[in-house]
Design goal:
The complex is a heterodimer of chains A (187) and B (295). Chain A is mainly alpha-helical and 187 residues long. Chain A is 60% helix and 0% strand. In chain A, helix 1 runs parallel beside helix 3, helix 2 crosses helix 3 and helix 6 crosses helix 8. Chain A starts with 18 loop residues before the first helix and ends in a 5-residue tail after the last helix. Chain B is an alpha+beta fold and 295 residues long. In chain B, 37% of the residues lie in helices and 17% in strands. Chain B contains eight helices and six strands. Chain B has a six-stranded antiparallel beta sheet. In chain B, a hairpin with a 2-residue loop joins strand 1 and strand 2. In chain B, helix 1 crosses helix 3 and helix 2 packs across helix 3. The longest helix of chain B has 26 residues. Chain B is flat. Classes of the chains: A mainly alpha (187), B alpha+beta (295).
Chain lengths: 187, 295
Amino acid sequence: MASFGHNSASQISTSQLSLPKLYKFALVLTANEQLARGLLRGAAGLASRSQKRGTNRDDHLDIMHKMYGMWMSKLAEDAGLQQKYPPEPRLFANAPVKGVAQGNAHFAKFIANLPPQQRAVLYLIYGERTSYDEAAEIVSLNMLALMKLLARGHAALAHWLDHRGIQQAGQDRDGELSPALSTERAA
Amino acid sequence: MTQISDEFLLAYLDGQLESAQAAGVGQLAKANVEISRRLQRLKQTQAQLMETFGAFIRDEVRLPDFGFAQDESANDASSLRASASLRSDARSEPNHLRAPGPSGSNPRQWLFVAAVFLGGLMGGYGATLLAAPGEAAPAKIMDRPREAVASPADWASDITRFHAFFPRETLTPHPDAITNPELIRFQLTKVAAKALSPADFSRQGYTLFRGQVFNYNQERMMQLTFSSKTEPPVTLYVLPGTAGGDRPVSVQSLGSNKAVSWVSDKVRFLLTSDKSEEDLKILAMIAQSQMPRKN
């Protein structure tokens, strides 16, 4: 079955790693807690073998790049992985929507249903505040492709805000999504 | 400039543009209602995304129990050090992620695996005895120290040789090519590390139709291709400069490929085409005259 290359005998070197951040990146990539845990274990194994390139930030970005590679190769190996372990909107349930005091189920589902690559890029730029160059390196895209992906993410969000946004979120926080919304994904 | 793309506006909002470019977009937004409206729209989604992922990154998260321990000596509270080994913790790892292994299987299987392993080991050792001792492979360019590979003195002929691998038909438009002039300008500025616009050869009948970024000796290099209805395509390479200072136009040739190169204001240029030396020198002069003046 799926393995992210965890080596049980490995040890993380003395280098300090921002593990909560790596775990959050794993959560963003997979949108599934179980898969994220597996991915983090794989990343920890990688970290123990990797040589320090320079600053902690360099190491951090390097490991995120490797995590992304592991996740993509895992998806390529097992096309049904995301069907077996579907996105969990609850992971993003605290995501606030402007104009609404607390996060809402609709918006969390929207974030969870974004394509992994797009969600990762949005997280890197607006969560981790990486530069475009750094984000492009992590997700192995050229600059133009990254910019297009970002723009599509913005367009998807703008569409969501227009059609399902604040009013509905306020009225129906726990409601199930309509079939139309379940198919609403970024291009 | 009014055909500005959302990608470029986003780069502006996300603070990724060089200051001169950003100022240009800012002025344009003041003068153009449509651009201003689009910027406003993107600002809304940007603010939403920053709030969403900002909250996500600030949220406390409980790490899976893999034996990670808080390192109290760390200055950064969010940094953890895995001071204990990553124990094989079957309880915390979901079944689907465990690597398939022979643990708990039949001892005969173990014996078989060991026999295969030993056989492979001995076979490999035998092969090394039979094989002639070869010289150690040279280090890859990316593994060499930067000083050893960066900016060789013959970079111009190097690029001329590189360009020889491009047949003319590859210098024609392609769906994936970068064709948006604003994005080309954005890329060019990043490559040259200063505000730079592509050369304008429109009076000579050339149109800029493609910009591509390549890696050259651990540096970025931009290839700008100009097409004409009647003339052969012209290609301009732009690279960040070296410490050597400015250099006047000089000619390189490799077979039928001719090129002129120069260094100006810490940026290296190489212009090449199936044209005569004189034509290339004229185009080089035009490109030089369009360069922003030094401060």
